[in-house]
Amino acid sequence: MIILSGSVILSSGPLIPIVLFLLHGFSLYRAYSVEQDIILILVTTLIGPLVWDQVLTEFFVGVLVLPSLPLLISKLRDLAPKTEIPKHQEGWRTSTTFSTIVSMTTIAAFMGFMLGDISLISSALTLSSFMVCLILFSLFQLRGIRIDIEDHSFQIMSGKKWHGEIQLLNDSSAKYYISLSTKDPDVHVSVANPLVEGTSANVVSVDMQTKLAGLATPDIYITRQDHLGLLWHGVLVQPVTAQVIPRAQYATWLAQRYLDQAGIESYIDIAPMTANNRGVEFSSLRPYHPGDRLRDVDWKHTAKAREAIVREHRDPQAGATILLVNVVTESPDEADWIAYQLVMSALSAAEAKIPVSFALYNEIEVVFSSDYLPPTKAVQQSMQLIDKVATKMIGKRLLSSPNVSYLQRARQTLATSPHFGGNRNLKKLLDIELSALEKNALDHPVNEALKISLALSTVKPTIAVISHQNHDINALAYVLSRFRNYSHSVIDLQTEFFKHNFEIKS
Hints:
elongated; 4 domains
């Protein structure tokens, strides 16, 4: 302010120094942003001392830049945390702040050269030399700091999310800022405290969702910035190693464990029965479990086996399940999900003592169908059927799944409306759409697969649908709507994750 006041006195036309003086004074009442403060300081540093050539030699006018440099450093230190550090970059780079300051001083030096003003050239060179010294010091500091990040290995099932924390160690007393990023959309990394100060450990949070075909060692970019925000340095690391377990492999492991515990023998077969084991029709024999009634013990087989054997009974009217499976998928990850749902559905039905019928189909024909199988046989069959899941390219779809119930209600409303004459054309369009949906559903293998399984059942089974709804989306919408009208229970096992992917592809 003293130098600027002298500029006002020494200047013959003191308009610019007075404006700068007033701008600095106004900042005492209303603070500027850090960016505005830096620009004001730079302009004042370069322009303020120009008229001092009347008192000092033109070459020594640049010395008047020095008193403003501590203020400039302070403002750069305030701006550094707000500077956006570039993502996915490796190597050394100067920041936008440094580039802006160097550009301004270069323009000032060029103008001084064009105007023949030695004072302006001297001020610009002094400021440029100081910035070069600052960035060389930052480069010297950062080059001596080694990035030490903890390695972490873990197991995760395909499609599941993992959250963990790893340590980022700092063995230097230097102060700098750090930022983490990754190009993998299924991996998110963040650091607890972006300011690294002194010898310490920082916590890095990692959120990861793996796919069957995803990366096992995601690339993580660590970018450092000096405490003044002038220099960036990025390095690529792979501290996290994920061992991805396919969902189908996990499901078959559970199924095999279930079969081993069931103890499949000639006289033991876990057959369908009611949950309370209170049926009237004999089903099978099995080992005694705590809680079984004494009256259900089969003493003849107990004597032969030399362990308690219980007679199981089932209710002829007990429910059954049809596993309706579309074996066509578009990616290995989708195929893994279909296989997982197929085995786990059969396993869940087995634990509930519910008989299962399999109905598998593709876009052309019924691939496999079966009678209603008892639990252990159903689990064994499901483990064999996962080999029938195939990956094919399916044409992209532009329309969403039709709401058949809504279309039928709309057609009925139009037909009973007192103004039916005006709605006749709209009703014809709905009739055409519903007729097309019906014809497509009747000709599609999904309808044939359901008919085969339903013909084997004396009760209304639950229909569990395992499909990504690609080629069968219209047929499923119509067929399942019709069976819901017949009071069948329908369970759609398609997950929200794949519904979201379908919407993106559409």
